[in-house]
Amino acid sequence: MKKVKDKKHSPIVTIVLIIIVVAWTVPTLGVFITSWRDSRDIYSSGWWTVLPHKDTVKTEEFEMPRDLDMDQPIEIEGVTAEFQEWREGIEVEEGRTLRWYGNKRSRKVEVYEEKWIGFGANLTLQNYKDVLSAGTITYEDAQGNTITRQGNNFADAVLNSIAVSIPATIIPILIAAFAAYAFSWMEFPGRKPLFIMVVALLVVPLQIALIPILRDYTNWGLNGTYLGMWLAHTGFGLPLAVYLLYNYISNLPRDIFESAYLDGATPFVTFVRLVLPLSIPALASFAIFQFLWVWNDYLVALVFLGDKNRVVTAALAAMVGEKGQDWHVLTAGAFMSMIIPLAVFFGLQRFFVRGMMAGSVKG
Amino acid sequence: MDIDTRRNPVSLAALVILTAVVLIGGFLLLQTDAMQNIKIFLTLFAVVWGLGSAALLFFTLNAVAESMPRKIRSVAVAIVFAGPAVFLLIWALVLPTFRTLRFSLMDAHGTNFIGLANYKFAFTDPIMLEAFRNNLLWMVFGTAFCVIMGLVIAVLADKSRREKLFKSLIFMPMAISFVGAGVIWKFMYAYKGEGFNVTEIGLLNAIVTALGGEAQAWLLIPFWNNFFLIVIMIWLQTGYAMVILSSAIKAIPGEINEAARVDGANSFTIFFKITVPYIMPTIVTVTTTILIFSLKLFDIVRVMTGGNFGTNVIANEFYLRQFTYGNSGQASAIAVVLLVVIIPVLMYNLREFRGRRTLK
């Protein structure tokens, strides 16, 4: 149902909104642009200089005659001044500055002009190659020094994130859907108190669970394993998953279950053939929610994975700690970590919003 | 009507053994060095094995339950359906709560009972008091700004033709991790330091110097650096508040606004006298959710300052106590404090649930 609404176009509202939206988008844009810039440029100029702007740039240089007496005032382009003044630069006319280069013997004069520069950026894929690489990387800093570093092996981190996130999204959905079906349509002892437990657990902070689970994992040898991450994320995601799916599955019409029963279908068959296909909107909502949560999670990964099988958030955080000023790899790494969730988000925004609304009780 | 769902015992046993082999064998195979060396293959195998095992486990358990004597069969099937979820919830959340409570009364290694000493630390240590103060700043200013900005943007966007586009862009940071947001904002705040002819590459310092001010190391300014961190949370969470509030605003019947307008009410009067009161329950829900969120906030502080320079928060101190100082007693006490603060919300949720619907 769409309300037909007469939207009056108010320029002030639009302008205010545009200002807010620009302020909201610029930080991400800055990182995105920087990740494509040459490492030397990143340190010597702001990322916004890749946009067209007016700047003072060296346009040409020329040599003064050899017989020039350097100790007398020198005349160039109609202006007469001492050598020292030339060395600091003199604006001979509007927007044209001449500057003596080096010492007296160089006899070189550089011309600086104010010009519009448009998209003069020197874009490169090197930052992405460097951040993905596991070997050593070399780059030049602002002073032109060559620096050698160990690469960050982001390629492995991305694969680890995939190996953690996909099962940690689908396993809780499967388990929660079975449970939601049981809570909705089956009789078993303890049904009501158990469901109240699920509701109570919705807001429990996961910090309360980290230390005991870590002890279990140490005993069972699950630290640093994918399985450990799946179990932990499944446990932490289940209250919301069961709650959301219960709300959906318990509202499916009773008739379909009765006719399935009369046709001789077991609960398992009913679940697989009827409940799962009918619940796809709810499953998708939760799946996106959980996927973004797991992919972007840092705390659980930090505690249970440590340095083994590092996921992207942990790899990026480690990079901030070790190489806080290496903006060329940091920005490329940040963008690598965002690209998959952003794609999921923009592709499936509708489902995400639906899941978020239903789950706004989660802490 | 009764369907015979029992399987023949031999095939059932074979199924159980197969399941066990897949589960255990897959796990052991994942740990081998050969697998660790070919990362793409490992990833693929892990995903397939993880999903396959979960499905296979349900299938096998169900087959076992269906082979039970008829009297207990329906309960057995229900246990197979609800059991894994209940079991995992108890293992991952319920038991840990009690175990953490117990650890909070023990010493650093969880071996000797030391009474309430860890709680004394949690409530009186200067480090903790600073963390409490900062969390209060996060909860008050972070939450207030998120909700107010979210509400303002939702109302304005509702009047705009490009509503969808504007809302998508404000909402976008929700898809970005806190660590990624940390890098984004660290770059915004970047500070080159003093020296001859320094070009600032951080946008904030570039703006400040262009306006004639002096570049600052924003994250090192005592007390105010907390607010530079809170900005990051506002940037991340305003979209959440906006989306939820926006849908509440759209649910306000059009006639109410029409009637008010006919009576001569202007936009401001409508906003304060109709919109806000009408969506108050939603505002409360959103505020609570963001309050809980800012109470547990960890990643942003961890990545930006590590809790140094007077920016520590409770959840970061929890992490430091456990993993830097190796004191699980103090860490557990901090976790219990977090839980206790949240208990009123938990009770409210339960009451709401009981009042709204009883289990069918």
Automatic annotation (TrEMBL), chain A:
Superkingdom: Bacteria
Bilayer topology term: Multi-pass membrane protein
Transmembrane segments: 12-33, 162-182, 194-214, 226-249, 270-295, 327-348
Keyword Cell membrane applies: yes
Domain ABC transmembrane type-1, residue spans: 158-348
Cellular component, GO annotation: plasma membrane
Record keyword Transmembrane present: yes
Primary subcellular site in the record, as a coarse category: membrane
Gene Ontology process terms (BP): transmembrane transport
A Pfam family that the UniProt record links to this protein: BPD_transp_1
Alphabetized UniProt keyword annotations: Cell membrane, Membrane, Transmembrane, Transmembrane helix, Transport
Subcellular location: Cell membrane
Family of this protein: Belongs to the binding-protein-dependent transport system permease family.
Protein name: Carbohydrate ABC transporter permease
From TrEMBL, chain B:
Record key words, sorted: Cell membrane, Membrane, Transmembrane, Transmembrane helix, Transport
One CC-aspect GO term: plasma membrane
Subcellular location: Cell membrane
Repeat found in the keyword field: no
Membrane topology: Multi-pass membrane protein
Domain annotation ABC transmembrane type-1: ranges: 132-349
Keyword Isomerase belongs to the record: no
PANTHER family listed in its UniProt record: ABC TRANSPORTER PERMEASE PROTEIN (PTHR30193), OSMOPROTECTIVE COMPOUNDS UPTAKE PERMEASE PROTEIN GGTC (PTHR30193:SF18)
Family designation: Belongs to the binding-protein-dependent transport system permease family.
Name of this protein: Sugar ABC transporter permease
